[in-house]
Design goal:
Length: about 240
């Protein structure tokens, strides 16, 4: 059974039909990438899973349990961590304080709970800055902290919305290396991205969205080798 499964999802903003019969799945320990141009529906897919844009049709399950109709805080408690595109951190709190206020253990079977010390072990750069107010961090450091903060909720699956957005190329490389370390802990991830290069080493499988529907799915090596698909559905 997949850890996370989306089947036949239709989602709307008001009368605008955005997702059409969308289906994807993510197995335990897998990193799955959701690719597509601007407006393809990547963010809406993540928001449907977390319950911010509840689907009008279809089902979304975590370990076989239906999430449809649950509010976002209940979905989070069941083990889905969501890192939105805009970085939500408390600028006047230090890194350590940002982590401590986000600490939650729900007893949802997500494995070893995260603590600030465990985060610092995995991301030593954040450890060196632990007493610095978050408002004084660089964009890349803030993105790392946003991800680390979500880890403090000890999720079974991490949903990341365009983590490389707005970061300088060198910082993007560093972030990729850090996410690879996170993958090494066995954490399951669903990553929405436009930057194919950023996820090409990290991802196991790919779904390409266009106009709210899946146009291609395959393994990352198959996708990277398939220039036609990349040209047809992405701006690369
Ligand atoms: P981006 O990289 O621009 O975030 P995306 O693939 O994540 O792209 P979505 O943000 O999911 O795409 O947008 C899918 C479609 O939904 C777009 O046509 C967009 O204009 C529309 N849309 C997004 N948010 C809203 C909203 N709040 N109200 C109405 N339409 C919206």
């Amino acid at each position: 059974m997949p850890l996370l499964e989306v089947r036949g999802v239709d989602a709307y903003y008001g009368d605008s039909h955005i997702l059409f019969d969308l289906a994807l799945d993510v197995a335990e320990g897998e990193v799955v990438c959701l690719l597509g141009r601007n407006g393809a529906g990547k963010t809406t897919t993540l928001k449907s899973i977390i319950g911010l844009v509840p689907p009008r049709a279809g089902c979304i399950t975590l370990r076989g349990r239906d999430l449809a109709g649950l509010p976002p805080f209940r979905v989070a408690r069941l083990g889905i961590g969501y890192v939105p595109e805009e970085r939500r951190i408390f600028g006047n709190l230090t890194i350590r304080e940002n982590l401590e206020v986000a600490r939650r253990t729900w007893g949802n079977g997500a494995g070893q709970p995260w603590t600030a010390d465990r985060v610092f072990e995995l991301f030593p750069h954040l450890a060196t800055l632990r007493d610095r107010p978050a408002g004084r961090l660089s964009g890349g450091e803030q993105q790392m902290l946003t991800i680390a903060r979500t880890l403090m909720g000890s999720p079974s699956v991490l949903l990341l919305d365009e983590p490389s957005e707005g970061l300088a190329p060198l910082v993007v490389e560093m972030l990729a290396a850090q996410l690879a370390r996170l993958k090494g802990t066995g954490l399951t991830m669903l990553v929405a991205e436009q930057n194919v290069h950023f996820v090409s080493e990290l991802g196991d499988r790919v779904y390409v969205l266009e106009k709210g529907t899946v146009r291609y799915q395959g393994t990352m090596p198959e996708f990277v080798a398939n220039e036609d698909v990349r040209r047809a559905h992405l701006a690369v």
